[in-house]
Every structure is written in C-alpha cells, then in structure tokens.
Amino acid sequence: MSGTTAIFVALGGLRPYAHQNIEMAADWCRSGQVIVLGDRAGLRGLASGVEKIRIEALIPKERREHLQRRLRARGTNTRWRNGYWLSILMRFEALQRFGEISPETGPLFHIENDVATFLSDSVVDKILKTSQHGVRVPFLDEEQACAGILWARDGQSLSETCAYVVESVASGAEKSDMFALGTLGRRGVIGQLPARFKDPEITVGGGPQSFGSSEAIPHLVFDSVVIGQYLFGSDPRNSQGISVPGYRYVKGGFDPGHLTNWRIEDCGDGRARVVADDSGGSVAFAALHIHAKRTIPAVVQDSLEWSRILDWANQRTRPQLNVHITKMVFWKIFVWLSPAKQWLGEKVRRNRQPKGQTRTSV
User: Residue 52 forms beta bridges with which residues?
Assistant: First the structure.
C-alpha cells in the first residue's frame, strides 16, 4: 500500500473514539502516512508518527468568516450544535485546500473521526485497480452519499469533489454534504464504494484456511452509516442522550435486520472483520461508521466484548441501552428535579430556624 495517505480533520478537541480510529488507520497505513488537518485543540494529544497540519495554514480567517456569512444568508442557524454546519464546510474546505497543494498525492482515504476502518494492502490495491472514477464514497440511498470514508485517486480529484460540496452547500443549492455527494454520484462524476450487495463488488479471497470453515469469498462493504447504527445505536445527541442498538435504515435497500450469523472472522487478506450472512452470500465490513460516537472493542477472534454485541444481532439477547449524560439530558434531569429541590430547600430552611420562631416576609 505504498504511498497511501489517510486524512482526518480535527476541529476542536478529539474524543477517545477519534483517537482510536486514527490509530486504527495508522495500523493498516504503515507503508503510507496518516495526516490530521486540525486546529490547536484538534492536534493535541495525537499518537506519534501522525503528521499534523494546522488548518489555519490552509484556510485564512477571512475565508472562514465568508463561509459563515453565506450560511447565514441561506437561513442556516450557525449556532446550532456549536457551529455544526460551519464545521462541515470547514472540513471539506480543508480537504479541498490540501488537495490543491498536493495534487499528485495519492491514493488517499479521507476518514471521518467516528469511522473505524479495517483495510489492507490487497483491498486498497483492488480499489485503485478497479476504479473508473477519481473519487468513490459509500452511498446511503439513491439520493445521498456519506463521506464517512472517501477514497480519492489523487489530491486533484479530492479537491475538485470537495470544492463542489463547499460551494453547493454554502449557496443553498444542496441541503447538505450528503446530498451534494449524491448529486455527483447520479451525474457519474464520482463512483461508489460498495455499501450494499448491489454495489460494484470488492472481495477478499477466502477459503477454509483463511476464512474460518467457509468456502465463501466475502463481499466487502464500506458502511455508510447503516451498520454502525444497527450495532451501536445513533448519535446520543439526536436521541436525548439515549443510544439503543437496532436502528434499521432500509431506504437504501440494505436492511441490516436481514443479516444473520454475525461473527468475527479472519479474512483472506489477514485482517479480522465483522462478518454476517445474507441471501447473497457473506459480507465483511471494511469500515464501520460508529454513529454513537464511542470507542469499540478490538476486532479479534474470541472477543468477549464483541460476543455480547453480536449476540443480540443474532437475536440471542436484548440490545443494551446506553445512556449518555449530555448537557441537554443534564438540564432535563435538573428541570425534572426542580420541584423536589425547592421542597427540600424549603424544608432545610425551616429546620434551621430557632425553635419557636416563624418565618416572616418583608
């Protein structure tokens, strides 16, 4: 996998799951490089060997302010979720600028901070050799593509794609980056990383020695977001701090609830992956979009943690409820307890009064 570059964008301090996913990329990208484009907080605490590029060196302050004004002009609440939509534009702008100054760098994988990757030399080589497009992403459905993981043949291809995303979203021509990428896909400008059985196929050589006891050659899938939400739940910020596995997004024609025999297998390229069976054969996941924003156990055979996770997917147990105390949940609990707090405070004040003295108001 000589020359392969994995790129992350870090705006603000990174949480543990992001550090884990950067380290996972560094594991399979040993013959290439891992680069993080970030601000001061985002570049803090990164593992050794990761190249750091300050985002301020790529995007001038005036450009950031210009993008923010354009978002406001299209009616976007730029304060929502601490500037979520501006961070989306800044992410693609940073990638665009990186591609401009490194047009011949490639191949590249841009990986979102909540995406766990399980790649290898043979998988990356197959993507490069079979790709008729300069950029490929997993599609969520017929209208949207998710850049949780985005492959580009070189920096120029990356830059051109990201430039369209930034301009179309900033102008209001597209609802979001996912719809913008979906538009490019329908126009034939970019291609698909397989996210469903009907997508262009990438396989990992199997056999009884290299793929358990099965003769099947597993079909590789790059999870757009469907499988990660099914196994671990959605972002707790979207569900009042409660994340429950089992969410099934079926609009794209790939229902994770129909998969059976979930397990961990060592695939033919020497990489352990989460694997499941479908009527079309075995499917192995080369990337998992962990929408719940959490770390995951190491993907290895005989993992007790993964056994518990996959037992409910195999309908042996109930899914585990995960409660995240976000600011929103904290204030809801506070408001809910406020009447009890007032009653308790009044009782304490009365108990502190000297015997025989009553409270008076002025």
Answer: 36
